Amino acid sequence: MMSVTVLALLMVGVMSFYMHVLKGIYVVGQRQALSADIRSFTDELIHNASRANQCILYLSSTPADYADDTKRLAIDTSSDPSLHPAGDFVVFVYYEFPKPTGLAKHRIRFIRGYFAVPNASGIGILRKVEMDFTGTTTGGVTAVQPSQLPVETLLTNYWNVPATAKFTNFLINVRGLAQSETLVTSSRLFYKNDKRSMTVTGQIFESNTNVLTQDWKTYTESFNFVVSTRS
Fold this sequence. Notes:
Blueprint: H1 2-50, E1 54-58, E2 86-87, E3 89-95, E4 108-118, E5 124-132, E6 137-138, E7 141-142, H2 151-158, E8 165-176, E9 190-192, E10 197-206, E11 219-228
Antiparallel strand pairs: 1-3, 2-9, 3-4, 4-5, 5-8, 6-7, 8-10, 9-10, 10-11
C-alpha cells in the first residue's frame, strides 16, 4: 500500500513537471512567432516606405474614408501644432521616373497600402493591397498604364479589379494603440508625424484561443517604429 502511494506521488510530480515543461515550450514558441511577425512587419514597412515618393494616411479602408482627396488626413498645424492625424489605412505612392516630357507632374506607377480591419474589440487582420500601373505584361496580363489621376480615384476605380488590385493578409490579430496629441480619440495603427514620416504603433497577439481571454495561452507584443519616405 505504501509503495502504491509513493508511486502515485511520484507520478503526480512527474506529470506536473511535464506540464510545466510543455507550457514553457509553448511560451517560447509563441514569443518567437510574435518576434518574427514584428520583425517582418517592421522590415517591410521601412523598406517600402523608404522607396516611396509619397505617404498618404486615411481613417480607414472604407471607401467613404478615401473616396476623394478631402478625406486625406493631411498635416495641418495652423490651429494646433501639437495635433497629428491618425488612421488605419496608409498608402505608399510610387511615381514613374523619368517624368515624360511635356507632363506637368509625375504619373503614378504603383500603389502599396496597408490597412487594418478591426472587429468590435479593435483587434483584426492587417491586410496589404498592391496596385500595378506600370503598363508591363506579366503572365499574359497587361497592367494599367501609369496615371496622373488622384490616388483616391485610382483606389476607388481599381479596388475591386482583381487584375490590378492584389490583396494579401499580412498580420493576424493586430490592433493599434492610442497616442496622445492626435486628431482622433480612438486607437489607430498609423500616426502621421509630418509629410515624410509616420509612426506605426500597436500590438499583435499569438493565441489559439480568443485573444481577449488573457489566459496562459494568449501572448502579445507591442511595436513602435518610424518610417519615412524618400521625398
